[in-house]
Amino acid sequence: MHAGLAGRFGLIVAVLLALAGQVGGQVVLQTQDLRLEIGADGLVKSLTAGGSGLEYAWTAAPMPVASIYREGQMTVGSQEAYREFEVPQYRGGQCVPASAASLAGDRLTIRFAGANVAATYQVTTAPHYLAFKLLSLAADSIIDRIDLLQLRLRRLPFLGPWIDVAYDDQFGICLCAGNIRTNAGMSPQAEYVEMRALATRDVALEGATAVLFGCPNPKQRFLDAMEVVERDFGMPAGARNRRAPVQDSSYLWCYPTPDNVDQYITLAKRAGFRMILFSYTSVTQGAGHFLFNQQFPNGIDDLKKVTDRIRSAGLAVGIHIHYSKADRTDSYVTPVPDERLHKVRTFLLSAAVDAKADMLTVYENPAGCTRDKDRRILQIGQELIAYRDYTTEPPYQFTGCERGHLKTTATSHSAGEPVGLLDVDDWVKFIRFDQATDIQDEAARRLAEIINATGPYDMLYFDGAEDVHDPFWYHVANAQWRVYRLLRPAPPVCEAAMSGHFSWHIMSRGCAYDVVN
Q1: Whose CA, among 121, 156, 384, 491, lies 20 to 30 Å from 248?
Q2: Residues 6+ apart with CB under 8 A from 119
Q3: Residue 517, Cβ neighbours under 10 Å: how many?
Q4: Which long-range contacts (CB under 8 A, 24 or more apart) does 235-239 make?
Q5: Which CATH number fits the domain that encloses residue 284?
Q6: H-helix or E-strand containing 277?
Q7: 114: closest CA among 144, 74, 151, 141?
C-alpha cells in the first residue's frame, strides 16, 4: 500500500476507534456509514445513517440488542419458513432480553436480567462495517440460542430477507452472518421490521459472528459493500459473482455424450442458448459414488472430451448435481449399507431375532414412524429390513418385515442392538446422508474430482438442497459449502432448489425452488 494512502487509512481507523466507546453510559459504535447507539439498559437507542444522520431505528418501541433462549426447542421441519428466509421459531422455552450493555476497549458485555448470564463479544470497528464475535457465554443454565444482535428498524420500502437487508433509495442496513455457523433473518411487521443474527447450541455458540453495515445509495453500491465483507471474513465471492456477464446466459438442459455432443451444440446455437447444462444422471450411474455409466466407458476422459467440445464451440458449460444423498442402488446403500446414512429415529431391540424373523420387538414406541410406501426401511448393522406396519401398544413391534432388503444380507441380531429408521427421501430412490458425519465430505470429494478434472464450469445447480435434516438452517447451506469449497475454480453461476442465509454467498441466482409457496 502507498505510504500516504496507508497513513490516511490508519487515521480513519483511529478516528473510528475514538468514536466507538462508552459515552454517558451509552455504547456508541460508528463506521463511516452508520452510527449505532446501545443504552446502558441494553436497548438499541439509535441507528443512524452516517452522512445524513437520518434515524432508522424504530424508536417508538426500542428493541433489546440481544436475547437468549433456554429450556425449549427450535421449530423442527420448518422448511416452508426457510423458503422465505425467516428466523426459526423457538417454542416451549424462556426468552430473556438484554438488560445491560457495557464496552471496554473492543469487548462488549451484554447481561440478561434475572438469568445470571453474561455474553462477551469482540467488536471489530472497520471503516465500513461492525462485527460482533461471541467470545464467551457465561451462564448458570444451558442456553439453546442467542440472538447476538437484533434490531427493530422503521419499515422501509425494500426488504431483502435472504441476506437480511432493509433499504430505501438513499440508504440500506444489512445485518448478516460473518460465518456459516451463524444464521440471520428478518420478521417484517406493519410499521417496522425486526432483524436478527443468531446462533444455536446445536451448531455452535462461541465463535458466532454478526456483521452490521450501512450502505449509501444501496441499489448501486450494495454489492460493493458486501464484497468487502466477504473478503474480510473469508466467505465465497457472492457479490463479485453476481456481476459476472455469464449470469445473463440462458442454457439448454440436455444429455450430451461423446457421440451426440455436436448435435446439441448445433441445436443450442440455433435456439440462441449460450450455455449447455447436463445432469450427473446422464453421465453417471447415480448419486453417492458417481460411477460413470456405459455411455462414458473412459470415465473422466470421455466427459472432458464432451465439455472441451462445448467450450471450443464458444458455449458455456453447466452441471446439475444431487449431493446430499445416495441412490438406493449405490454402494453406500447396498449390499452393505453405510452406517453414516441418516436415521430419522433410533430404537433398541428388546428381544433377539434370527435371520428369518418377520417381526422386530423394540423398547420404544414406533408411533409416528412413516407408513409411506418404499420409505419403511430399518437398518440394523449391515442389514436393511423393510417393514409393513408397527404396533403402538406394548409390546412395540415392527411387523411384516422383509429381511435382507435391497440385496443386503439377512442375519441374526441380539437384544439391545440399535435399529435405525432410514431417512428415505421424498423421492424414494434416494437415502439421505447424516450431515454430522464425513459421508457428505466423501461425496463432495468425488464430485470435485469429476468437476475439477473436466472444468472449468460456468454453472452448478445444487438440486435436492432441502433434503437434509435438522438443524435445517445450517445443513442446507453447509452441505452446499462442503461441495463448493473444493471446486477449482468455483463456478460463478450457482442455483439451488433451496438456500439458507449463508447460501447467498454461493448461490448467485435465487428463486429456483422446486416448490413455490
Answers
A1: 156
A2: 66, 68, 109, 110, 111, 112, 134, 136, 137, 138, 146, 148
A3: 7
A4: 235/179, 235/502, 235/505, 236/481, 236/484, 236/485, 236/490, 236/505, 236/506, 237/490, 237/505, 238/504, 238/505, 238/506, 238/507, 238/508, 239/505
A5: 3.20.20.80
A6: strand 275-279
A7: 141
Output the pLDDT for position 324.
98
CA distance 117 to 142: 10
Count of beta carbons in the 10 Å neighbourhood of residue 220? 9
The answer on 321 and 360 residing in a single domain is no
Q: What is the pLDDT of residues 301-350, one digit of tens each?
A: 999 999 999 999 999 999 999 999 999 999 999 999 999 999 999 999 99
Q: Are 218 and 144 contained in the same domain? A: yes
Instruction: List the grid coordinates of 171.
Output: 440508504
Residue 304 belongs to some domain of the structure: yes
What domain range includes position 217?
A: 3-235
* CA distance linking residue 157 with residue 306, whole number of Å: 48
CATH number at 97 reads 2.70.98
Question: How does pLDDT run across 197-255, given as a tens digit for each residue?
Answer: 999 999 999 999 999 999 999 999 999 999 999 999 999 999 999 999 999 999 999 99
Residue 478 has, within 13 A of its CA and on its CB side, a CA count of: 22
3-state secondary structure 429-457: CEEEECCCCCHHHHHHHHHHHHHHHHCCC
The answer to whether 150 and 112 are in contact (CB under 8 A) is no
What is the number of alpha carbons within 13 Å of residue 334 lying toward its C-beta?
Answer: 18
Q: Over pLDDT 70: what percentage of the chain? A: 90
Are both 416 and 437 inside the same structural domain?
no
Whether 402 is covered by a domain: the verdict is yes
Do 397 and 374 share a domain, yes or no? Answer: yes
Q: How many CB atoms sit inside 10 A of residue 80's CB?
A: 10
Q: Are residues 197 and 83 in the same domain?
A: yes
Give the Cα separation of 252 and 279 in Å (integer).
11
Q: Residue 259: what are its φ and ψ, rounded to 5°?
A: -85, -30
User: In the numeric block, which cell numbers belong to residue 341?
Assistant: 446414512
Structural domain contains residue 517? no
Q: How far apart (Å, rounded) are the C-alpha atoms in residues 143 and 71?
A: 7
What does the alpha-carbon distance between residue 222 and residue 171 come to, in Å, rounded to a whole number? 10
Name the residue among 279, 135, 125 with its Cα closest to residue 199.
135
Task: Report H helices in 120-217.
Answer: none
To the nearest 10 degrees (0 to 180), the angle between helices 439-454 and 300-312 is 50
pLDDT of residue 93: 72
| End-to-end Cα distance, the chain | 50
Of the residues 422, 446, 465, the one at which a domain ends = 422
pLDDT at 2 over 90: no
